[in-house]
Amino acid sequence: MRVCTPHCGIDPETTSGGETFERELLVWMAARGIAFDILLARHKRHPEGVTNWTIHRLPIGRGLRWPVAPFLLPPAIRRIYDTARFDLLRAHSLRYIGPAALLARRYYGLDVPIVAHHHHLDPSPLNGLIERRVIRAVERVVVGSAFARTQAVAELGVPAEKFAVVPYGVDARFAPGPRSAALSGRWGLGDAPVVLFLGGLKARKNLFLLLDVWGEVARACPEARLVIVGSGPLRQQLEQRVTALGGAGRIVFTGYVPERDKVDYYRLADVLLFPSALEGFGFTVAEAMACGLPVVASNRGSIPELVVDGEGGFLVDPERPADFVAGTVGLLRDALLRAKLGAANVERAQRRFRWERCAADTAAIYEEVLDAWRHRPPAR
């Protein structure tokens, strides 16, 4: 099978969960023998030397913007179709790529089905105008969680049968391992118990709730430290809040951490504290589970599909901060409980959240869609 996939980015060092998903999925599917024609802006980086990838550069020097895509992409998609005769057109984003894919098929008469991928809906007045129309017009939409499907059906009134749920993967390098003495020394942690948050410093991650919860945890467990890994628009406000509360000595902001170093930060920690209000999958949670961490997380979005409450950690209503505090303090004070829940998380991550499985299940959906397209009744 040959697949055309116009792209916003597949950077090896991205901080975006959606871009991480795209990069890893395309690598693993290519390893299964699927050929990809990938359209990228001139400056966009990508993993080098991937078998079955052909990179086609778009005539733009900056990132793709969704209002521009319907004008820029259809002719480029047609050129690839004329030379490579791909079998299936892929839209990694309903808004950024979906309209352009549909226009290319319609205007140029491309005889290909379209499969879209979708993570979750952020609040926007455009959802009904763009996302709803794309979902209704493509052959299938692949999502990483039942939550993403339920959210789209409820908010957009689209048919549930349009969706296929395929949980995303976690690389095998995310596994339990020893704590790095060098990393601990770098951040002045010593042998202190460490609670970790890893992710973008943006509003939907509920970071001010994180700080409020931590204030109570630190009073109960003064020896513990909170390590906040990541960058984003809220960092300055968060640091100012910490300073105002007098907790700077117990909280470490690492800033951006390269992808290759993330495993060491999970291994540095004893507990993952993750109060995010909305996740279409939740890579941080899945990666922490694979590394053997117990999790105290929000019970919103897709997270309840990853963590089994009471078996791998505690799922908490964000409206009940005291429950975040109780779960975190309980784990910090009970090493045997941490080990038990962490081991359960490792087993669950290995069984359910691996890229091999994600790539195989996604490839099967593509094959099913392509077969149905080729055997569809002739148009009247």
Structure description:
By secondary structure, the protein is of the alpha/beta class. It has two domains: 2-169 and 355-374, Rossmann fold; 181-352, 3-Layer(aba) Sandwich (Rossmann fold), CATH 3.40.50.2000. Helix content is 43%, strand content 16%. The chain is built from 14 helices and 13 strands. The chain has helices at 17-31, 69-84, 98-108, 127-137, 146-156, 181-186, 207-220, 235-245, 262-268, 283-290, 303-306, 321-332, 335-352, 355-374, and strands at residues 2-6, 35-41, 53-58, 88-91, 114-118, 140-143, 163-165, 194-198, 225-229, 251-255, 271-274, 295-298, 313-316. The strands form two sheets. The protein has a seven-stranded parallel beta sheet, with helices on both faces. Strands 10-9-8-11-12-13 form a six-stranded parallel beta sheet, with helices on both faces. Strand 4, helix 3 (98-108) and strand 5 (114-118) form a beta-alpha-beta unit. Helix 10 (283-290) crosses helix 13. The relative contact order is 0.12.
